[in-house]
Design brief:
The structure is a single chain. This protein has helices at 12-15, 32-36, 45-54, 74-81, 181-198, 219-230, 304-315, 320-323, 328-346, 367-385, 389-400; strands at residues 39-43, 58-66, 90-94, 114-118, 128-132, 138-140, 152-158, 168-174, 202-207, 234-235, 242-243, 248-249, 252-256, 263-268, 278-283, 294-300, 349-355. It is an alpha+beta fold. The protein folds into three domains: 12-283, Deoxyribonuclease I, Chain A (4-Layer Sandwich); 302-347, no CATH class; 366-400, no CATH class. Helix 5 runs parallel beside helix 6, helix 7 (304-315) packs antiparallel against helix 9 (328-346) and helix 10 runs antiparallel to helix 11.
Length: 402
């Protein structure tokens, strides 16, 4: 666990006695004692790697980060995720600032992840994206998206979590501060009502720009918390997610109606943007039901014997049919086809399976680079824990040196 970052936790029942958790539906699995025992902490990537070693059967895991331009930080986030051995099933990003669908391809989450984007067509900024593990079958739930100007959201329903008796709903929401809560609350209420009616386990991640740490003196924050609790949802994140030199706030979260006893969650310490990433991991009682499988690597067999046989094959081929063809385009096509066939015969491709956890997302992400990223994040954590001038200079130096 990182050294002392702000020792503040969200505890609405300690801050404000007007909140009424006992108004939650009594027929649900979640209760007040569960909520107060939610496990959340700060993590460096090494800490998270140690956690995942002890949790062998993860049924579903998700990661959210307000990235403030995914294009700008594509290399940084790709490199950072390579320091984490666990591959999350769902990666969610808010404030992606995409202009085109193709922008999402700049970040390398992993082979064959499905991508869904909510891109603002008529204005810049904002945006939301979900990257979905290829082992998950899902349908898109357009009926659950926030119908509120300047809010961005995506909802899906996962259909193949075998350990669960029901499908699981995953959503992501970005609510800018410019969107009034009087407009946002009715839409959120509508979504939560639909989920409650369907009675499906659900996770809603995002940046809501509602600081839960202000629940002791801000009525609007209290209204938000009461709204969430009354629909049997609770926040899995109770630590500040945005820490600057002048302020701390808890505005990024992952809300769920799943029993907290099955969920580990945390805040990841990194300086990629001015928001910390957050994560939640749902653990299965038995064996994992989501296939973490393998990545396939396909490569040509180019050993000396292959090359020698390829050269012999070329020398034994009668190329007169190419030389006698007076049509240049046709002659080239004939030559290319014959050459490709000989190459495939003597230098065939071979597909091998690689563990996803041991496969770098990019070839340039070396072990040395991963160590440098971890070291940089430790210096940044030290600066945020003790923001003096010396620690600030060290953190700035490490950032410039990457």
């Amino acid at each position: 666990m990182p050294d002392s970052l702000p020792d503040i936790k969200f505890d609405p029942f300690r801050f404000n006695s007007t909140l009424n958790p006992h108004s939650m539906n009594s027929d649900e699995d979640c209760n007040i004692d569960d909520i107060q025992s939610t496990h959340c902490d700060y993590y460096l990537s090494d800490d998270l790697n140690n956690l995942t070693k002890t949790k062998k059967h993860t049924e579903l895991s998700m990661f959210h980060h307000n990235i403030r331009s995914l294009n700008k930080h594509a290399t940084e986030i790709t490199s950072y995720l390579s320091t984490i051995n666990h591959n999350f099933n769902i990666y969610g990003f808010t404030e992606t600032w995409f202009n085109f669908e193709e922008d999402s391809k700049l970040i390398d989450i992993g082979d064959n992840y499905s991508i869904i984007n909510d891109i603002r067509k008529d204005r810049s900024g904002g945006g939301a994206s979900l990257f979905i593990d290829p082992s998950l079958d899902y349908i898109q739930r357009s009926d659950l998206v926030i119908d509120c100007h300047d809010c961005d959201s995506i909802f899906i329903e996962i259909t193949n979590l075998n350990n669960s008796r029901k499908n699981t709903i995953i959503g992501i929401i970005y609510r800018p501060e410019s969107v009034k809560l009087i407009d946002f609350f009715p839409e959120l209420t509508r979504i939560l009502n639909v989920i409650n009616t369907e009675n499906k386990p659900s996770y809603i991640m995002g940046d809501f720009n509602i600081d839960l740490l202000k629940c002791d003196h801000d009525n609007k924050v209290n209204d938000f918390i009461n709204l969430v609790f009354s629909h049997v949802f609770y926040p899995t994140i109770d630590r500040p997610t945005r820490v600057t030199e002048t302020s701390i706030s808890l505005i990024d979260n992952i809300f769920t109606n799943d029993p907290p006893s099955t969920v580990d969650s945390g805040v990841l310490v990194t300086d990629i943007s001015d928001h910390f990433p957050v994560f939640s991991m749902k653990h299965a009682n038995g064996h994992s039901t989501v296939s973490h499988g393998h990545l396939n690597k396909t490569a040509r067999q180019l050993k000396p014997d292959n090359i020698k046989c390829f050269a012999q094959g070329l020398s034994l081929t009668d190329w007169n049919f190419v030389l006698e063809n007076n049509d240049a385009d046709s002659a080239f096509n004939d030559f290319h086809d014959k050459l490709s066939k000989i190459f495939d015969i003597h230098c065939p491709t071979k597909t091998s399976k690689l563990s996803k956890r041991k496969t770098p997302r990019k070839p340039w992400i070396t072990a040395g680079l991963i160590k440098s990223i971890i070291f940089k994040d430790k210096l940044y954590r030290k600066y945020r824990s003790n923001p003096n001038q010396e620690n600030k200079l060290k953190a700035s130096w490490s950032r410039r040196g990457r």
